[in-house]
Amino acid sequence: AKQRGKAGYVRFLPGMAEPVLAHMRLGGELRRALDQDELEVVYQPIVALDTGRVVGVESLVRWNHPERGLVMPGDFIPAAERTGLIADLGRFVLDRTCRQLAAWLAEFGPAAPGHAGVNVSARQLHDPGFVAHVLATLDGHGLTSDRLVLELTESAVLRGSQVSRTLHDLDQAGVRLALDDFGTGESSLSLLRAFPTAIVKLDKSFVDGIEIDDADAAARDARQAVARAVVQLAGALGLEAVAEGIESEAQAEQLRALGYCFGQGYHLSRPLSATALTTLLSSRQRA
Ligand code: C2E
Ligand code: CA
Ligand code: CA
Ligand code: CA
């Protein structure tokens, strides 16, 4: 099931029989990637659906692999989680993000993105030093805690007293928590009560096909019903709702009509390098 590439790297094939070995090897490469600066952070704008303003960004990690080219997070985050390297990777993404946000705030003032969202894995929340590290990083870049949003999935926050304490302490410190991929988990609603959530991100699966006027009207209506319920629930609980994965103006239009104020997706902007987003901000929203 395993093949070696030209430099002796294992290629990761679907159904590979040795996932542990694969993860270990990938882990070794990731260690090198971190040490040799092969990782990059790109930023996807979070946009006000009425004005088109970039109100925030989400940080997404990329790996510029010397042989394999661009590697997407879905192909290495699981290995980083299993090998424990997610802690170092997470620190890298947080530090890079804070540095960049501080630079945008300095350059664009109130026209800069107001906050940055960073994805966090379960393992990071189990680290008792996590909160102190987050706050020290913000402070080190001269940022107040309201500039940071930590994006968590349901599986990351399920159970564990250390996780509860971590999330409570972050909330107390003024860092906002977003529930990612909202609506896809089994207990999305009870999580809202159990954790100090500030933002819900409607999963892309409810945005896909939300606008089409085709034979499958029942499926479309069901997605619209979920999208509507989520934004109404958010409103009732005083949370912000962000719709993810918007790929067309028709979808944006539909989400606006349902009551969404904020969205994210290729139609609004792809994830951009720091340089590319700086250019976009210069042309679009310099005061
Ligand atoms: P996510 O947090 O749900 O991030 C959204 C994903 O959807 C990103 O994929 C983004 O590029 C993609 N996306 C955004 N708009 C659209 C759209 O309109 N259409 C489509 N088809 N896709 C869209 P990406 O960058 O490949 O990231 C995948 C996942 O990897 C993320 O899902 C997140 O769970 C994880 N991830 C990314 N960066 C980090 C990180 O720094 N740390 C951790 N722990 N996880 C990360
Ligand atoms: Ca996310
Ligand atoms: Ca998501
Ligand atoms: Ca996701």
N- and C-termini, Cα separation: 57 Å
Largest sheet: 8 strands, mixed, barrel
How many individual helices? 12
Alpha carbon gyration radius:
20 Å
Shape: globular
Structural class: alpha/beta
Number of strands: 11
Uncertain regions spanning at least 5 consecutive residues: 1-10
What amount of the residues lies in strands?
A: 15-25%
Give the ligands present.
ligand C2E, calcium ion
Question: What are the secondary-structure elements, in order, as H or E?
Answer: EEHEEEHHEHHEHHEHEHHEHEH
Overall pLDDT level? 90
What's the arrangement of strands in the largest beta sheet? 3-4-6-7-8-9-10-11
Helix content: 40-55%
Protein name: Diguanylate cyclase (GGDEF)-like protein
Domain EAL: 23-285
